């Protein structure tokens, strides 16, 4: 029989805003492999650890495969009718303002476009907002008030061309790893290039920095205001650019004078010498790029931070030229696309303005719609407030998990639970949000979806399907369109394919655009199915044929802003975030991402490799703070804010700023007993952008005193874990679980029976040491270990990686079985330590061993152990292990 040749599909990574090109290869046996697309201009073949593990996340485990109504399986017709009827009835009875869509930066442009069109142009309210509100709304607001449009002026290439790259509130190494790798490679090639990291934490990104400014939380306005004042004093302004292309410079400078150097030092928490060195470098370097991300955006003064940064670039004319400019990098794969289609409650479609009557009239005319939203809608935090107080009576959540990601998560969950009608379209059947839906709609996942996304440098790329739609799953654009038709808008939603929607999106962007709107992809307005299939990545604007080349397109080198006078506006900013710490809550909590997980782990949590890196929710604490509160490394810690409390593992590190702690955003009720950091965050937002202040929460910490601890490796995930603390993660062969109990456990066997997989014909060995208060269980099915559970009054000292390996090994003889009960590797087994390189499963102990043996560079470690030689995401951590060991040796 002739063998089928593998098919290779060019698509785009569904995780961060770097937007890497991916080649997905489907072999004859249906197995999938992914690698970086060498031709994609965002990544040129690179992928980070998350991108490299994409093939491990496409199984159907946990997928929602059929529509459900009130917990029972339903057909598509019934489910769509229910959604359309309920929305229509609610609108008829309570007005358009009584319904809302909460959508996502995970949606493709085509999904986003039809959802926005339905809500703003046909339902007639702007109550559609997106989880991108949590990601980059402050950048959008900062861009719009400075440039007159939400325009990112530069390209990724500028980071490589710059002589100075300033990274503000951006852990690029972990959050935008391929962009970090491009920067690290450029710096390795040109060591004279300088990198400055401005961040309260000394993140892995700081390891390539010439200077790390451990700024006080929200001290950025003061730092960049001080910089503007210094640029003026040092004669480093571009007077011509200011005069010809900007307004508001005098007012911005006057605001910047508010603080002298001592005041700047006080507000930033930095010493004068460090500030002066940063200012000197910025003033004397022409090619400067300032990259900023969530540390800037997720703040109650996020928009002002963005303005303070942009002011410095406008005042020096360093914008829109190679190697220069302010550069906002977005968190999500299609946060930028959501901005283009108008997925935010305060925008219209195609970068038109909802507050502008002419724009509204133009969009309504283009759509031929009966109405058009006449005012801004509810932004995310306000939207869930309105759900809570009953103003929103029908809510449709698409491709996002607000119970785990919104501030005040418990309130959000209560609000969703109480809402009269909740629709969730999602890929998974069980998330902390989906479980509350009245109607669950099975959506297509990455690999099945078909459309476009836009990355942080305005580059649009295709996400192409290479897998069949499983069960009854459907693309989001189809679901929205079907509901729109049933609501009586069949003609305007008669699309047969995403290509038709993209063509309309492109046509709207060019509709009556005389060059006063930045977003214009009109050259694609006539695209057909074949053209859409073949569409290569391109940067916008693409007004004319020829502009869709791989050349970088930049804005504003010669002015041409999108304000009425075509000049940029420098915005005077003086605000500082109020100090939030105080009695009872003395520490600042910062939230963010880890290297190998994505958002609420619905996808990356499926990957064994990715779950190896950090398998539990944790809190990073400076050793001095830990000593103050009596906390040791690896203790369990209760972190409490005025809104709630969580229990997570202590990770002591001097990378953390004293007085601040950090907890990752990823853990949900599906992966931990009490690890949802969003329940600690108050619903405090930036007044301009509506973006929540997810990085500045007042908390206290205290050791969680456990009376007993446990660790288990299991082939199956238990239905329920009856422990006060637990955290579960995938591992090779199954699952690993950490446990802790607040009170002494009376019946260990009952705990074992609840946790260990049950099956007929199994054999359970157990061991009890009453003196040391230890109990161990191992359950076998023939030679196969089904699960091992270690319980003790003290933290369990069993090597985790060794225990995990036992799940994949045969245990034929009694000695091997007893070794599992003993919880000790046999002679010759190696304890790798915590996994650093996910691609090759290399642990910290192995790397430390290689360093001791003489490997003193990342490359040498790579040659010895392969670590860091695939995706490169762990290279910063390898560098820091080398550094720590060399310091130790020198002491
Ligand atoms: S950097 Fe990583 S997560 Fe981001 S798009 Fe590229 S491969 Fe995906």
Describe the structure.
By secondary structure, this protein is α/β, with parallel strands linked by helices. It has a seven-stranded mixed beta sheet, sandwiched between helices. Strand 4 and strand 5 (72-73) form a beta hairpin. Helix 3 packs across helix 21, helix 8 (220-233) crosses helix 10 and helix 17 packs across helix 19. The mean pLDDT is 93. The structure holds iron/sulfur cluster. Iron/sulfur cluster (SF4) binds at residues 13, 15-16, 18-20, 43, 47-48, 50-51, 176-178.
Spell out the blueprint of helices and strands:
Elements: E1 7-12, E2 21-26, E3 32-36, H1 49-52, E4 68-69, E5 72-73, H2 76-94, E6 99-103, H3 109-123, E7 128-130, H4 137-147, H5 157-161, E8 164-168, H6 172-175, H7 177-189, E9 194-198, E10 211-213, H8 220-233, H9 239-245, E11 246-247, H10 249-256, H11 261-268, H12 272-284, E12 288-292, H13 294-297, H14 302-316, E13 325-328, H15 335-341, H16 357-367, H17 380-388, E14 394-398, H18 402-405, H19 409-418, E15 421-426, E16 439-442, E17 451-454, E18 459-463, H20 476-489, H21 498-510, H22 529-534, E19 538-539, E20 568-569, E21 587-592, H23 608-613, E22 618-621, H24 623-628, E23 636-641, E24 645-652, E25 660-664, E26 697-703, E27 708-714, E28 725-731, E29 734-741, H25 748-755, E30 763-769, E31 774-781, E32 784-792, H26 800-806, H27 814-822, E33 835-837, E34 842-843, H28 844-852, H29 858-865, H30 875-890
Parallel strand pairs: 6-7, 6-14, 8-9, 8-12, 9-10, 11-20, 12-13, 14-15, 15-16, 21-25, 22-24
Antiparallel strand pairs: 1-2, 2-3, 4-5, 4-16, 17-18, 18-19, 21-26, 22-25, 23-24, 23-26, 27-29, 27-32, 28-29, 30-31, 31-32, 33-34
This protein binds iron/sulfur cluster.
């Amino acid at each position: 029989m002739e063998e089928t040749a593998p098919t290779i599909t060019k698509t785009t990574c569904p995780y961060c805003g770097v937007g890497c090109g991916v080649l997905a290869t489907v072999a004859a046996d249906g197995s999938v492999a992914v690698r970086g697309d060498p031709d994609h201009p965002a990544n040129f073949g690179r992928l980070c650890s998350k991108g490299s593990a994409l093939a491990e996340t496409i199984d159907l485990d946990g997928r929602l495969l059929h529509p459900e109504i009130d917990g029972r399986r339903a057909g598509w017709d019934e489910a769509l009718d229910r959604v359309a009827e309920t929305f229509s009835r609610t609108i008829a009875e309570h007005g358009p303002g009584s319904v809302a869509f909460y959508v996502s930066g995970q949606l493709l442009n085509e999904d986003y476009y039809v959802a926005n069109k339905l809500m703003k142009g046909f339902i007639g309210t702007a109550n559609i907002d997106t989880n991108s509100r949590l990601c980059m709304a402050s950048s959008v607001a900062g861009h719009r008030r400075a440039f007159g449009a939400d325009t990112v002026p530069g390209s990724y290439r500028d980071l490589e061309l710059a002589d100075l790259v300033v990274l503000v509130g951006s852990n690029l190494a972990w959050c935008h790893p391929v962009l970090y790798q491009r920067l690290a490679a450029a710096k390795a090639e040109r060591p004279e290039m300088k990198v400055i990291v401005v961040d309260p934490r000394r993140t892995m990104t700081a390891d390539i920095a010439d200077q790390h400014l451990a700024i006080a939380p929200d001290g950025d306005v003061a730092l960049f205001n001080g910089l503007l004042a210094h640029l003026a004093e040092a004669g480093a302004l571009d007077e011509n650019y200011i005069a010809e292309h900007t307004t508001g410079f005098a007012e911005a400078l006057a605001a910047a004078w508010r603080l002298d150097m001592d005041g700047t030092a006080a507000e930033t928490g930095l010493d004068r010498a460090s500030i002066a060195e940063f200012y000197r470098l910025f003033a004397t370097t022409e090619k400067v790029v300032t990259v900023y991300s969530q540390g800037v955006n997720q703040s109650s003064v996020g928009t002002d931070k963005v303005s303070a940064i942009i002011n410095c670039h406008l005042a020096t004319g360093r914008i829109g030229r190679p190697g220069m400019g302010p550069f906002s990098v977005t968190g999500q794969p299609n946060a930028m696309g959501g901005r283009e289609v108008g997925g935010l409650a305060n925008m219209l479609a195609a970068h038109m303005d909802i507050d502008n009557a002419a724009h509204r009239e133009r969009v309504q005319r283009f759509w031929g719609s009966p109405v058009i939203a006449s005012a801004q809608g509810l932004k995310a935090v306000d939207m869930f407030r309105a759900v809570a107080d009953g103003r929103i009576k029908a809510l449709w959540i698409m491709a996002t998990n607000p119970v785990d990601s919104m501030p005040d998560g418990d309130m959000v969950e209560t609000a969703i639970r109480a809402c009269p009608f909740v629709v969730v379209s999602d890929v998974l059947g069980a998330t902390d949000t989906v479980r509350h839906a009245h109607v669950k709609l099975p959506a297509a996942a990455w690999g099945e979806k078909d459309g476009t996304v836009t990355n942080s440098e305005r580059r649009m790329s295709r996400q192409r399907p290479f897998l069949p739609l499983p069960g009854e799953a459907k693309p989001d654009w189809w679901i929205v369109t079907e509901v729109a038709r049933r609501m009586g808008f069949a003609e305007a939603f008669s699309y047969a394919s995403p290509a038709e929607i993209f063509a309309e999106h492109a046509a709207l962007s060019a509709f009556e655009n005389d060059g006063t709107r930045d977003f214009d992809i009109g050259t694609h307005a006539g695209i057909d199915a074949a053209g859409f299939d073949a569409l290569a990545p391109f940067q916008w604007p693409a007004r004319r044929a020829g502009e869709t080349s791989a050349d970088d397109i930049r804005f504003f080198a010669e002015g041409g802003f999108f304000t009425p006078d075509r000049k940029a506006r420098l915005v005077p900013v003086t605000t500082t975030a109020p100090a939030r710490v105080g009695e009872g809550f003395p520490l600042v909590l910062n939230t963010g991402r880890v290297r190998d997980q994505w958002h609420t782990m619905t996808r990356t949590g499926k990957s064994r490799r990715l779950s190896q890196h950090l398998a539990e929710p944790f809190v990073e604490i400076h050793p001095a703070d830990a000593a103050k509160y009596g906390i040791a490394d690896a203790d369990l810690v209760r972190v409490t804010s005025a809104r709630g409390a969580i229990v997570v593992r202590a990770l002591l590190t001097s990378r953390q700023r004293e007085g601040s702690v950090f907890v990752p955003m990823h853990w949900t009720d599906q992966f931990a007993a009490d690890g949802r950091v969003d329940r600690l965050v108050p619903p405090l937002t930036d007044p301009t952008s509506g973006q929540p202040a997810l990085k500045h929460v007042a908390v206290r910490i205290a050791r969680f005193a456990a009376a007993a601890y446990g660790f288990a490796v299991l082939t199956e995930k238990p239905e329920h874990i009856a422990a006060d603390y637990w955290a579960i993660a995938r591992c090779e062969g199954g699952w690993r679980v950490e446990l802790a109990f607040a009170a002494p456990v009376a019946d260990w066997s009952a705990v074992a029976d609840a946790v260990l997989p049950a099956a007929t014909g199994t054999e359970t060995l157990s061991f009890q040491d009453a003196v040391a208060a230890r109990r161990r269980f191992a359950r076998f099915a023939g030679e196969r270990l089904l699960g091992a559970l270690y319980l003790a009054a003290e933290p369990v000292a069993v090597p985790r990686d060794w225990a995990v390996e036992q799940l994949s090994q045969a245990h034929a003889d009694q000695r091997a079985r007893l070794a599992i009960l003993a919880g000790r590797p046999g002679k010759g087994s190696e304890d790798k330590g915590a996994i650093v390189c996910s691609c090759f499963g290399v642990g910290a102990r192995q790397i430390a061993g290689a360093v001791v043996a003489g490997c003193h560079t990342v490359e040498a470690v790579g040659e010895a152990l392969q670590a860091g030689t695939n995706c490169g995401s762990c290279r910063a951590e390898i560098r820091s292990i080398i550094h720590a060991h060399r310091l130790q040796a020198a002491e």
